[in-house]
Amino acid sequence: MTVGLVWAEARGGVIGAEGGIPWHVPEDLAHFKAVTLKHPVIMGRKTWDSLPERFRPLPGRRNIVVTRQADWAADGAERAGSFEEALSAAGANAGANAGAGAAPATEPGHAAEAWVIGGGELYREALASAHRLEVTEIDLQVDGDARAPDWSGDDWRVDAREPSDGWLESRTGIRYRFLSLSRPRS
């Protein structure tokens, strides 16, 4: 199974503050949806809690929540006690019991893929297993208490940068750009 991590980060690697995202870039949200739709998404419980109720569970995706709370349960989510357990569940049943429109792992021409969507602790744990990164760089200096993992020392290759030079500007006036990275499977 291919494991990807997807996040948006401000300068200094900030991905969150006080349980939320300290910016609003609708174009990044659309990118996130395009990347993760029809694939299992793996998230920590705090990330689940940070999603507005109207978006829980994220539609068209299996929602797997990693938590040490053995009695945790939520409608539309599967509980996993560890990242490894979440990966195993995603790989064993990719497409099964998923949200409407989720693609099965056995669909011809469709590789089994799961996306880790946060938070910071889970990203750091999952980075060693990842084959793909989708990073939205946000051109803001903000304070935050959650940070993206440091992938700079690993053998990541930048496959695409949009735009190739400079920045795009959100309809909210915030500058951003997309990075797609990959590394060979070990």
UniProtKB/TrEMBL annotation:
<dbReference type="GO" id="GO:0046655">
    <property type="term" value="P:folic acid metabolic process"/>
</dbReference>
<dbReference type="GO" id="GO:0004146">
    <property type="term" value="F:dihydrofolate reductase activity"/>
</dbReference>
<dbReference type="InterPro" id="IPR017925">
    <property type="entry name" value="DHFR_CS"/>
</dbReference>
<comment type="pathway">
    <text>Cofactor biosynthesis; tetrahydrofolate biosynthesis; 5,6,7,8-tetrahydrofolate from 7,8-dihydrofolate: step 1/1.</text>
</comment>
<dbReference type="GO" id="GO:0070401">
    <property type="term" value="F:NADP+ binding"/>
</dbReference>
<keyword id="KW-0560">Oxidoreductase</keyword>
<dbReference type="GO" id="GO:0005829">
    <property type="term" value="C:cytosol"/>
</dbReference>
<dbReference type="InterPro" id="IPR001796">
    <property type="entry name" value="DHFR_dom"/>
</dbReference>
<comment type="similarity">
    <text>Belongs to the dihydrofolate reductase family.</text>
</comment>
<dbReference type="Pfam" id="PF00186">
    <property type="entry name" value="DHFR_1"/>
</dbReference>
<protein>
    <recommendedName>
        <fullName>Dihydrofolate reductase</fullName>
        <ecNumber>1.5.1.3</ecNumber>
    </recommendedName>
</protein>
<dbReference type="GO" id="GO:0006730">
    <property type="term" value="P:one-carbon metabolic process"/>
</dbReference>
<keyword id="KW-0554">One-carbon metabolism</keyword>
<keyword id="KW-0521">NADP</keyword>
<dbReference type="InterPro" id="IPR012259">
    <property type="entry name" value="DHFR"/>
</dbReference>
<dbReference type="InterPro" id="IPR024072">
    <property type="entry name" value="DHFR-like_dom_sf"/>
</dbReference>
<feature type="domain" description="DHFR">
    <location>
        <begin position="2"/>
        <end position="183"/>
    </location>
</feature>
<comment type="function">
    <text>Key enzyme in folate metabolism. Catalyzes an essential reaction for de novo glycine and purine synthesis, and for DNA precursor synthesis.</text>
</comment>
<dbReference type="GO" id="GO:0046654">
    <property type="term" value="P:tetrahydrofolate biosynthetic process"/>
</dbReference>
<dbReference type="GO" id="GO:0046452">
    <property type="term" value="P:dihydrofolate metabolic process"/>
</dbReference>
